[in-house]
Specification:
By secondary structure, this protein is of the alpha+beta class. It has helices spanning about 50-60, 80-95, 105-110; strands at about 15-20, 25-30, 35, 40-45, 60-65, 70-75, 110-120. The longest helix is centred in the C-terminal third of the chain and has 14 residues, at about 80-95. The N and C termini lie close together (about 10 Å). It comes from Dictyobacter kobayashii.
């Protein structure tokens, strides 16, 4: 089944579920995202100290809930380059009009993460 997430691009946030690196249990957070094709981009202000980043480093298979739809995906940490710049630009552009805070530092200093979505969970 082709993943179509563009209908959810304007959602304020998604729910990301990782598997706990110690507990082995699902751990869900609410997080900002931007969609591009079948990939979601997230920024971790806590960089690699964030629990969700530590969890996905150990187990990159994740689930993402967008509105009422849940998808399986594979998480990747981005390194400096074109995709990293894209992630920062589109997340910043999406949330700057919605926030009263200056998000420039957050956008520049956060760890960029990509989640390639695969299938909708039925």
């Amino acid at each position: 089944m082709q993943v179509d997430i563009q209908n959810f691009a304007d959602e304020d946030f998604c729910y990301l579920t990782t598997i706990g690196r110690r507990s082995g249990k699902p751990h869900t957070i609410e997080i900002w995202f931007a969609a591009h094709g079948t990939t979601l981009y997230l920024l971790s202000g806590g960089r690699d100290k964030a629990d969700w980043v530590k969890n996905m480093r150990q187990q990159p298979a994740v689930q993402v809930k967008l509105a009422t739809h849940t998808y399986t995906g594979q998480a990747r940490i981005l390194t400096a380059g074109t995709e990293d710049e894209l992630a920062r630009q589109i997340v910043f552009a999406k949330y700057t009009p919605r926030s009263t805070d200056d998000l420039t530092g957050w956008s520049n200093d956060s760890l960029a993460v990509a989640i390639d979505l695969h299938n909708e969970v039925q």
